[in-house]
Every structure is written in structure tokens, then in C-alpha cells.
Amino acid sequence: MRRLFHRLSVAAISFAVSTPAVAETIRVGATSGPHAQILEAVVPVAKSRGLDIKIVEFSDGTMINPATDSGEIDANAFQHTPYLDRQNRDRHLDVVSVARTVLMPITAYSKRHATVAGLPRGGEIAIPNDPTNSGRALKLLEGSGLLRLKPGTGFEATVFDIIDNPNGFRITELEAAQIPRVLADVDLGVINTNYAIRAGLDPRKDALLRENELSDYFCLIGVARRNVEQPWVKTLVESFRSDEVKTFIIGTFKGDILAGW
Where do runs of H (alpha helix) occur along the chain? Predict the structure, then answer.
């Protein structure tokens, strides 16, 4: 009887050693397009490290942080810090950044004019209407000399902060995803890179204005504060900020999207 028990014990130990551990599974939210595409490159890297990522694509980015806060998803990778800060404040959320990821420089395009100098007096400029990206767009326009904002105005600038508009440009605020669709109807459109790429625009070749690499708008990985110390957070961050994912970004986006590591 003792011999039989000994054989069973050895067999059980052998089975336990040879059976791979079940990977932990998390759900990570992103908007469709480049953000989700980059996450697809993160998946195999994370899997090799014992973390199974299920990508949850959202058509409405405003729903991602609430889903993260409530636990519907575990993390997200789609937004920059000013956007997260405003969402936390306005929607009473507690989502925090655990890592910097990529920069999708905001850019400006025109189908009517070949250069910014060619913009007519009184021309119409479309910018995103959400608070963080509208300020970002205005700062881009200010940096290019098209208008001037109140001294000390930060990235939460609004059209009411414009103090000098020498060419009388009409600033029209539209939903960010809509601006590529109306580009032919305005003189200049300021467009987030993810929407520009989805619309078939080439930020390197087509943009008349482009945000520089000193931008405060690098994207991030966000998690609910209660999850910050979970072991999977470190694995997710290290997988995203891996050499494999950086190589994918460089090879796929050719400088249109910049890795922040």
C-alpha cells in the first residue's frame, strides 16, 4: 500500500511540474484604430510572460475610463494625461496612469491650401471640441503664429483665451472624429493622429502643422487606483514598453506615432 501511495505521489508531482500555469487574463480597453492595433502587438509579448490580454474596442472613447473605474475592464491604453485628468475630475473617477506609452502628434491639414501661409483672411479652422484636445489644437495654432492666447494659458485653453487673431480666422469646434470628414469644407483642420490615419491621411506627407516631441500629450496606460499594485500591472507595462512593440510601432507607423521609451 505504501509503495502504491509513493507511486501516486510521484506521478502527481510529475504532472504538476509538467503542466504549464494557467495565464492570468485581463481586459484592456482602447479606441478602434491605431490604439487597438498597437495593443494587438502587445498581446503576444504579454502572453509569453504569462499574461493573457483581451482587447476591448470602444467606438466611444468617453466610455473607457468609466469602464475601467467600475471594473468592467481592467486597464486602458488610449489617452493622454490632460484627458485623463479632466475625466477624473468631471466624472468623479479614480483612474491613474501607470506608464507613458506613445505620442500621436496632433496635426493640421488642408485640402484647399498647400501651405499655412496660403490660408486666407477670415478662413475657417476646425478644431476638436472636447476640452483637452481643443486646448491642444489652439496651442498648436499659437505655436505656428496663427493666433495668440492669453499669457500663461495652458493646455486647457479655450477660444475665449484668444487675444490676437490678426487674420480673423473663424475657429469652429467639432467632434474630433468628424473633422476628417469636413476637411474639404474648411481651410484648415486640426486632427488627432489616430483619426487622421483612420481617414487615410499621412501625417508626415500631408500635414501642414505638427506637434513636436516635447508635447505633454504622450499617451498612457490607465488602471483603477485600487489595482495599481496588482502583479499583472507590471507585466502589462513591461510588455507594452518592450523592444518588440517599439519595433512594431516604428515599422508600422513610420514616425507618425512615436514610442515614448
Answer: 2-18, 34-47, 64-70, 81-91, 131-143, 193-198, 203-206, 231-240, 243-253
Q: How, if at all, do strands 258-259 and 102-103 pair?
A: antiparallel
CA 240 to chain centre: 13
Instruction: Please check whether residue 125 is in contact with residue 190, taking contact to mean a CB–CB distance below 8 angstroms.
Output: yes
Mean pLDDT of 52-80: 97
Kindly indicate whether the domain formed by 107-210 is annotated with CATH number 3.40.50.300. Answer: no
Is 3.40.190.10 the CATH classification of the domain at 24-104+217-259? yes
What is the C-alpha to C-alpha distance for residues 123 and 185, in angstroms, rounded to an integer? 11
Task: Report, in this order, helix, strand and coil percent for the chain, each rounded to 5.
Answer: 45, 25, 30
Task: Supply φ then ψ for residue 155, to 5 degrees.
Answer: -80, 5
| pTM score of the predicted model | 0.81
C-alpha cell at 188: 484648415
Count how many residues are written for the chain: 261
Q: What angle do CA 6, 8, 14 make, to 5 degrees?
A: 105
Task: Convert the pLDDT of each residue in 89-107 to its tens digit.
Answer: 999 999 999 999 999 999 9
